[in-house]
Amino acid sequence: IGVLQRLRKPHWARVRDFFIRLGPAIIGSASPQIAVLADTILSSMLPDGGVSSISYAERLYQLPVGVIGIAAGTVLLPEMSRRLAAGDEAGALHAQSRTMALTVALAAPFFIAFDTIPELIVAGLFQRGKFSAADAYAAGDVLAAYGAGLMALVLIASARASFQARGDTRTPMLIALAALAANVALKIVLFRPLGAVGLATATSVGLWINLAALVGLALAQEGMRFDAVFVKTLGATFVACAFLAAVAIFGRSSALALGAHFGSLANLVALTALALVGALVYAGALLGALRASGVTIASLRR
Fold it and tell me: What is the 3 state secondary structure string of 168-206?
């Protein structure tokens, strides 16, 4: 009576093609997580505190990655695939350029914060009980080293879409494996003299190698194009970052003085005050610089 549907025989060629592409895609996407796992393993060979410093710093470092980087890549890949399937090459490149521009603008404040006030961030969020000021400084140094590679990490997913949207999952995998090999080799060299900071530094270097190779190859193959809006947004972001860095560096003492009135919450209050002022300054400077260069928010969203 038509209630029960007959199972259809799968298209084995398409299923096989799916799994052939799936494996390299998983390996290519997992390389940053593998690098952090290597950090955790090697940090266990360091003196007491190495594992904790990596763990606390990595928690903070992954926040903008999950909120911005992964979200951008998740939205961009199907959008590029859809446009390319429809023969709209220009539309696919346009979507990628806009996504990467927004990613840079949104992630840049985290990059500045992680590399100007890392100890205050860790102290404000975690320094209580047995977690001492010395622990906060140790984890802050690791956070700064991780922060150096933050912009690369949040852009990798969007850059990888140049290949994956065209059905090429092998190239990003090979690039990721090469970057991971360089990363691990550098960890082995640095973790003895620099400790946990050396491990995080190696991770950041590996991420920049990964991104540079993806972008360089995609540009060479004309699978990526940065338009005028991207360049102007990048310039506006640099200007806004300069203002934000000034607030973080020169406003820190005032924020700490304010926090001193709140006892055990001193660092948290100082961090909150600095974050609020910094966010307002960054947003104002970014919007002002974008407007001066002729870029509107509407043009970034299109």
Answer: CCHHHHHHHHHHHHHHHHHHHHHHHHHCHHHHHHHHHHH
